[in-house]
Amino acid sequence: MLNFLPAPLVGLIATLLMVLNVLFWVPILLVFAIIKLIIPAKRVRLMIDPLILRIAESWISGNSGWMALTQRITWDVQGIDGLNYRSWYLVNCNHQSWVDILVLQHLFNRRIPLLKFFLKQQLIWVPIMGLAWWALDFPFMRRHSEEFLKKHPEMRGKDQATTRKACEKFARIPTSVMNFLEGTRFTPTKHLRQKSPYKHLLKPKAGGMALALNAMGDKFQAILDVTIVYPDGPVDFWQFLTGKLKRVTVRVRPLPIPQHLVQGDYAGDPAVREAYQQWVQQMWREKDVQIESLLTR
After folding, report:
1. Least CB-packed of 53, 82, 97, 229 within 10 Å?
2. Average pLDDT of 252-261?
């Protein structure tokens, strides 16, 4: 434990260890990804993909190592026992900070298959990490405003096509598809601007989950509904590195796959779209009550 050191020094040490961990594992990851790119045969992919996932899991274990060394966090976690590493999951979580991703990876690493995130297209240009995400087959999505789509209707549906293509890859090997239903991190400003009906959450967006279920509903064992709460308030990434995060509460509950919705046409059938929206809104109402309970106990 290095948390007794001055906070700026803890932050510098944590940053250095995090960067060294990246610089060690990402080149190894890229070697196998390039082989897969050069030889795109399905047989080669089925051999290399598990190796790439093991490398990524070792990378995450390295992150957990420097976190344990530099942070003093009290973890209150329920619901992660009995999960199946060899199955497929659709993971849904509220989103407050970039720290959420490290929390999720730390808790789920080697308990369920590697979490695969849908990322904004611009993130592929992030130095080193963009290449790593590409190597891990994280889908990169373009987000267009409704105004843009009206001017360029040919672009409508591109994200759906990207999602379907990604899910085809995910179906070949056990995968956990990660989805932040809010679509962005919660802030009081965004909450006010949205006029969200929830106290602790932004409005959920059902489209991404609907596409994943439509493409892989027969593969998913369950939906893992994850709730992350920071009892002392969320922190930004630098505050996390300097040891300001003291307590993390996480609750995980498996939910059945809504079979009556899986085969529905979310984009083309208003009734299906309404049913999906009602389903996720009910999930969000329950999550909002749960967060309030965890914060006030």
Report:
1. 82
2. 92
